[in-house]
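Continuing the series of single-chain predictions for the mutant panel. This is the parent chain; the variants come on the following pages.
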Amino acid sequence: SQQVVMPLSGMSLWATVCILLTGFLLFLIIPRVGTGYFTRATAESLLASGFTDRVQLGDIGQVKLSNAVVMHARQISGTPFAVLKWRGIALDRFDGRNWAKTARRRFPLRMTADGEYSIPRVTHVEEADRYEIFLEPLATTTLFGPHQIRALSGRLQGVEYDDDDSVYLRLPMAQRIQYEVVSDIPDRARMFADSSTEDRIPDDLPARYLQLPRDIDPQIEQLAKQITANGKSIIEKASLVEGYLKRNYRYTLTLSWAPGPQPLSTFLFQAKAGHCEYFASSMAILLRAAGIPTRLVNGFLMGEYNPVGSDYIIRESDAHSWVEVYIPGRGWMEFDPTPPDPNRPEINLAMQLSHYIDAMDLFWNSYVLVYDSGAQLQLFRSAQDRVQSLQTALRDTSDRWIAHGHYFSARLSAGAAQVARRGAFWTVFIAIVLAAAAYKHRRILSTQLQIWRVRQGRSRATEDVVEQLFYRAARMAERTTRKRKPAETWREWILGLPDPHRRSLLERALTVFEKSKYGQLPVSTEEFSLLEQTIQDVKTRRP
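Parent structure:
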C-alpha cells in the first residue's frame, strides 16, 4: 500500500502545480468583464474639497498636506514632457474669500461611433497630446487632463462639460477609472510672438470674467495700475503681474498670519507669503482690476515622473491653483504666478525603490484588475512589437559584430608582421585609448564639430549646439557665484546673480536658448555669436 500511496501523492502534487499555473495563465489571458468583482468598490474617496463649484481660500492648501496618490498618467503620443499641469475645474466668481461658478449648467457629451466623447471647441489639432489616465476614487466628478481636454474615451458612464472647458463624470465614481484624453497643448512662445496690442475684449465674452468683490481694497486697484503701466498688450500686462508676484512674494504652506476680512489685501501688502491659492487669486483679481478677463483654475502640478513605469505619479500634495487669461484672437492662456516650492523633496534611494513598487501596482491594476479585451489586444500587440524589435536589434548587432570581426581579422593578419617588426605596440595602445575616449565623449566631440561647422558657415546652429553653449556659459558662471538650486528655473537663478553685467549677458543667452529649445525657431548668426561672446566674457570677467 505504501508503494501505491507514494505515486498518488506525487501525482496530486503535480496536478496541484499544473492547476495553479493554468489558472494563473487563464487569469492573465482571459479578459474580465466590468462586474466590479475585482475592482476597488470599497476604496476611500479622496479630495473632499478644492474641486467643487464653490471653493474657499485655503481648501487647496489643506489638500496639499496629504501625500495620497490621486492618479497616474502615461503619455501615448505627443511632445515628450510637454505637460506641466493637470487641469481640473475653472471658477469665475470671487467674493473676497470664496471662488465659485456663476453658470453651473453642464452639457452632456454624446459618444461618437469610435467610442470617443468629443468637445466641440477644438483648435490647433497638430498640437494635441494623448494621455492615459488612471484616476483613483475621488469625492468629485471632475475629470483631469493636460491643459484643456478636447476629447476622451474609456469605460465612462456619461460625460458632461461646461462653458469654462471643465469636464465631469455624470455620476460620482465609486472605484478607480481608466480613460484616455486628447488635449490642446498651446505653444506659449508662439502666442507671445503672435500677441497683438489690440486690447478689445469681444462683446460676447461673459462679463463674469471681469467681476470684482464689492468691498475690494482700493490698494489692489492702485497696485494693478502700477504693475501693468508699461504693458502694451494684454499678454504683456499678464506677464508683468505674473513676474511681479513671483519676484516679490514667498511660497509657504504654513500661514503665520490670519487672513482676516480681506485675505488678498493681507497677503499682498502685509504677509507677502502664502501658497498657490493666494498667488493665483491675487493675479486674477489684479488683472480684472486692470480690465483683463481671467478665471481661476484648480488642478495638479505635473507630479513625479516614474522612469520604471514610464508614467507620472500625481499626489494630493501636487494640488495647485493657477490663472487663465483671455487673449484676443488666441483664446484662454495659462499663467502661473506661484514661485517654486523650495522644500520639494529630492529623489533618493527610497523614492527610487518606490518607483518599482508603484510600477508593479500600476501594472496589476491596468492588466489584471481592470483587464478587458481592449487591454488584452494592446498587451499582445505591445509584446509582439517588443519581440520583433528585440529580434531585429539582435540580428543587426550580430551582423555588425561578424562584419567587424572579419574586417579586423583581415587587417590584423595582414599587418601583424609589419607592426611587430616596427615595434608599434605603443602606437596601437595609444590609438585604442584615444578611440575609447572619443567614443565616451562622442556627443561633446560631435557638438564641437557642429560648432566648428557653424563658425565656418557650413551649417546652421542646431538645438543641441545652442543647448551645449548655454549650459557651458551657465556652468562657468556657477564656478564663481552661487549654484542654481533644484527648485529654481534658469531665469530665476540668473536674476539672482549679483553682477549686473554677467546677469545681462546670461539673460540674453537664455532668450536665445529658449527660442531654440522651446520655440523650435532657427538661431541667427548674430545670436550664435552672442552665445560664444557670453562664454568668453564669463570666462575672462570676474564678478
